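ok trying again, last paste got cut off:
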Amino acid sequence: METNNMKKIIFYLLTCIAMVSIATAKELPPAPPESKPDLELSCDEADARIKLYKEKNDALRNNLNNLKKELSSTEKNLQDTRNNYIDCEEEILKLCGATKNDLEAFRQQLGVLEGKVRQMKGLSNDELADRVEEVKALETELNRLRGNKLSCIPEFYDKILSLARDIKGLYREKKITGYTVGTWAQDRDCLWNISGKMEIYGDPFQWPKIWQANTDQIRNPDIIHPGQVLKVPPAGPKTDEEAKAERRYWRQKRAAQEAAETNVTPGM
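nice, full thing came through this time. structure:
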């Protein structure tokens, strides 16, 4: 009798456990739409919404933890990079025989020079032509900095090359609008030589420009006189009129030479 009762009790307990397991394993319905107010939810819908929020919260927490790990790793890498940079900088300073104070002083000097060059680049050509000595002083200062071993550091190297190009580009020749002819004996002045002077054109082949600008006082371009004040037009390609005058000059020159050769007495 007792054995039968015990079996019934065990069966009853197993049945209860099975029912509890079934109830626990019961799937919740899908989460209700976000627009549905909490007060209108059924118990199952409320449980589903709570479950959804919990899953989202867990996912966000996991993402946050992962980001914290990545941040920690990045900060460590950054610190390692900083340490490597400091070690590298100290090694470079040793090679240059310089201190951090020397490095900062060089950086400031280069910055001052860059500022001066920027100001000069804002001047007109005429203003630059009047300040050639200042441009030379900038070039001298740059060469002084170039002589410092610190100039080879990557931070400064490209800047110094750029400054050298900029300073070279600041040189301007004064524009000459008039020229007083000197003597042949002392100055070797003729239109060819005058045109070849660096302060004029720096190109003797430009002589027709001076000739055509002064036809009121130059009839024969081969003959100019000391004391004549010649107008000097701006440099540039020859105009059509200047080119025509030059061709005409050479045609006449050849014709005169051929005529002179024809009139030479045979045997002379």
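cool. The first strand starts at residue 178 and ends at 180. The longest helix spans residues 43-96.
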